[in-house]
Amino acid sequence: MILVFGTVCLDRIRRIPALPGPGTYVEIESETTLLGGEAANTAAALTSWGADVRLCGNPLGEGPEADYLRALLEQRSLVVEAAGEPPPRFRTPVCDIYVTPDGDRTMFGLGFSAMEPVFDPKLLPLIRGEWFTAEPNMGGVSRQAARAALGAGMKVYLMDFIRDDDPVAPGSIWQSSTDWAGFRGDVVRNTEWVRRLVDRTGCFAILSDGPNGLVAGSPELEVRAYPPFPSPPIVDTTGAGDMFRAAMLYGLSQDWPIGRSLAFAAASGSLSVRSLGATSLIASIDEINDLVSSHPGIAQQYAEAV
Question: Which residues 6+ apart lie within 8 Å of 233 measured at CB?
Fold first, then answer.
């Protein structure tokens, strides 16, 4: 079982020709509303690949937006197990995402700052030896949940926990991107940054840098750079990190070697940029494996991760 804890929301994605300057106007070319949120994206991918998933996160609220969000979850055979009672005046979180032709995105959130429930760790289905993953968008609640999972003896995978006091424990897995940590486009500095994190925490660390590949390592595994798999034409980079995390967790839950899991995750992240949003077109296991096998030179570099 993989327990995915974190954000569940609506992603309202709008394609625009360019971001407008101050006081100017731009026409929205298209709009679509999708299931979103880091936890929901990750759980949707894992479920599509046949993994046993429990999704636990923020309240969904009431009203038309909440009803639509529940319908999108039902389409993915997902049910959100609430982590506690909703705070006062809670509303369904919605993320407005503006995507330009180069695939870059600008995001505006509504309802996220008030999404922390009155947390009750007894509501979490914590099972010793199973996987737990979280991102920090629910602030203190996310950190409490991660500490509860560690205390229960779960295997912990944390994404974007970048504070020095975050619960990154020896033997856990940490993932983030150069949107949040490290240095975009600088492999040497990113390698050193990851090495310092590994030395400080004892975790297995993964720092992705989009089209520049990633750096990964642990106390047992050499900290080194890995190349990216070629991506299709970029439509939208929303959720690429969530697809990477889901694929990494899938491989780990199947007891794959770490290099195979890393390659599968990197290929999954590359394929995720071919469509709007994270969940409109989730790559199949066969598609991901085909991308890996069609680039044996790159795959070999991942296979050398020992």
Answer: 274
